[in-house]
Predict the structure.
Amino acid sequence: MTKRHTLTFALLCATLSATATSTNDVQELPTLTVEETNAPLLDATALDAEALAQDTAGGTSVIDLDSEFIGGVNTTADIFRFDPGVYAQAGSVIQDARLSVRGSGATRRYGNRGLSLLIDGVPANSIDGSFYTRAYSPMNTSYVQVFRGGNGLAYGGNQIGGVINFVQKTGISNPGGEAQFEYGSFETTRSYVGYGIQEGQSDAYVSASWNESDGYRSHQSWRDFNTTANYGYRWSDTAITRAYILYSDSDADLASGLSKYDAIHDPKESKNTGAEDRDLSTFRLSQKTALDLDHTQLELFNYYQILDLDHLTRSTRPANLIDYDTKEYGLGWRSTSDFNVANIDQTLRSSLLYSWGDNDIGGYRSVYGFGPPRSLDNDYTDGAENFQLYLENESHLTDALSLIYGIGWQHAQRDRHLNSGQQNDPGSTISKFDESYDGYTPRFAVIYSLTNEWTVFANYSQSFEAPTFGESSGALDAQTAHTYEIGTRVNRPRYSGELTFYYSEIEDDFIDAESSGGGYIAENHDTLRQGIETAWTVNLWPDLSETAPVNLFLDASYQWNDFSFDGGEYDDNQIPGIAEHVITTRLRIEEPTGLWRIALTVERLASGLEVNNANTLESTAPFTLVNLSGDYKINEQLSLYGGVDNLFDERTINTVTINPFNASTAYSPGNGINAYMGVRMHF
């Protein structure tokens, strides 16, 4: 039996014995007075998630897709439009949003990393920690939880960005049928159908969506298909299992970068000379079992995931094709126990994750030097293994004051095996490696309720992140960060919101840099990150004691992202790729019974984007977008919605190609004015 399979078997045995162990622990400690856990078993609602966020000692948010949005929510970037802590911008591939929390993965040239992506609480990153957002559809998502920074440690988020958890619809949350059809600018069509059912102890939900578009720019067409299903069975009042299946397939053409002048004056242009594209297929199986063991809630989960990525970056000679075929497995648990020691209520949380997998790399790559430009085949396998353990205790010293203290340990293995084709390639520059990384993630926090409506908190945490496959090839050190966080949260009838300030010192940050050989290489650099995350909702009119024909609300969020290099050749330079100031405001007018709603949204990137580490290329210009959206309920089964984004057709540059070898074509235009209209049906 291999080392990996031996450890897997041991963990499975530990998982199966956890119920008996937890029960025996309570029986053997009669001096402990154990309190009842009030959290829902497995199928938490958005309101349950919001209650959890209110009691968290740090920056958190819950995004309810069923109630918070007016108009359409079509891309991952749309989901986080009003979130104060997630920087989200759609690039040349609309479905592939750049997601960054507190600067996570800021300089990565493709895909995302630096935070843990969960689906229904089960890990969804690729085995090396990277991820693409297009595999997961907003249409079948009920709500999203964001645990920023160290607040995600208890959920497996040991990276600086924390955790983002997408919670799908179930037969309990969305019984009956629903359908959505939408048509918009650039020949964009979106369609969705889902059905949920609950009978006795069982429930199920199935969904499918199909979306396609010609795109705003030349050579920017895309299409995607997504289908999901989940089945839940309640064994008893204290045990429930839910199984999930997901399949996603998407194709997207890649529009080229432009010069800054062309991006503003001719944004629809693309200078592609060949059929560059990026295609991704995902197949995923997972299950969760939740047990209520008197005063302990235990979640056991496992998953299997297949990713197939084909990324053609140059179709002309010498051609370049990235072909990844990834298979990965994972299992783990999370637990929450309530008890009492010395008349002080305690909450103990634990999480464990073990995952492993391989990525077979094929395709071919462009080679320059030592002869004419040419293409060489890729034929090697990258392997990864990850183990994470975290324990955290919360001491409720009074009804108003709690202390949180925890410690975690992570082990990661990254290796590369050269297959026969690669070994026999005399021009190959690919080398094998076998690296291991170990780190600790302590956390200390305090949360104090000044009143029932006003809470303050402070937080220290250390994050740890092993390199992804691309960064492992350079034999880099793991990234660690020390983050300090203070903030406040207010929840009053007339207004509510949060304000958080954080400061992070990052050692061995992963920075993509230009290599002397005409390629890109990941390097370790120390960096500093500090910022403000704040979002507020205000009931402007009428007063709570009054009635009126309409209700008027104001939503506002602000991000300050001050990210810079600390020492070295780039000392004090701004880290490229992320705007320093992001402001979003929305004015909502709603008919009190929900008959109709209208929203006017203003999005402003108040500072431009730096393009390279040296800050020598011209930064982008700040811009402001105005969006108008609304919906109208014809009856309980049928409603209409629509909107116009970028109402005044502003010419913008919202993403850049980071470190483009001083090339001028580093700028990617955002969409011009675009409109959409759709219908939602319930049956």
